[in-house]
Design brief:
mainly alpha; Four Helix Bundle (Hemerythrin (Met), subunit A); 6 helices; about 0% strand
């Protein structure tokens, strides 16, 4: 039972090729449904892990990895298919790469991060909601899409800024461990 959240995270990673296929086929409704499933299962695996204390070291790596992989693939594909908005997607990709690099540094130094904070969850939720809306309604006025992407990008960077004290605290753990 303890590994159910990890299994769900793996399921989310396995959804990525299906999302890619549907975007390439320009079946954006199916792609949106996959994003909805991914978002819902992300909430479920986090809820189960916290509610039943099924939090594992693997889950602390697997869940954010599934999030970042999904988000980066969405951004790459949307940057290609919605090229007029590419700058937002590229900025979000670089933010995710920076977070992965920092997380990798902590993992390499055997310091486990304490998990997502509320502002990270808000940022992830806004990302999914925005991408689902954009996928489901590709004919939205461009000003609305720009607004969604700007809000998503601002929220994503706000979350990074709020995580900086957390990263500094963990950096101190690396220093003490050496």
């Amino acid at each position: 039972m303890r590994n159910i959240p990890n299994t769900i995270s793996i399921f989310r990673i396995l959804l990525i090729p299906f999302f890619v296929h549907h975007v390439i086929q320009e079946d954006m409704l199916a792609a949106a449904v996959i994003l909805i499933i991914s978002a819902l299962t992300d909430m479920v695996d986090g809820f189960l892990a916290r509610r039943f204390d099924w939090i594992t070291d693997l889950g602390k790596i697997l869940d954010p990895a599934a999030d970042k992989l999904t988000q980066m693939v969405v951004c790459i594909l949307f940057a290609i298919h919605l090229y007029q908005y590419w700058v937002f997607f590229v900025v979000l990709i670089f933010r995710d790469l920076a977070i992965l690099a920092v997380s990798g540094y902590f993992i390499k130094n055997k310091v486990m991060l304490s998990g997502a904070k509320w502002f990270g969850k808000v940022s992830t939720t806004l990302f999914y909601v925005s991408m689902i809306i954009i996928a489901m309604f590709p004919a939205l006025p461009s000003i609305f899409i720009y607004a969604l992407l700007a809000l998503t990008t601002i929220c994503a960077f706000g979350a990074v800024l709020l995580y900086i004290p957390e990263f500094i605290r963990h950096k101190e753990q690396v220093k003490t461990a050496k």
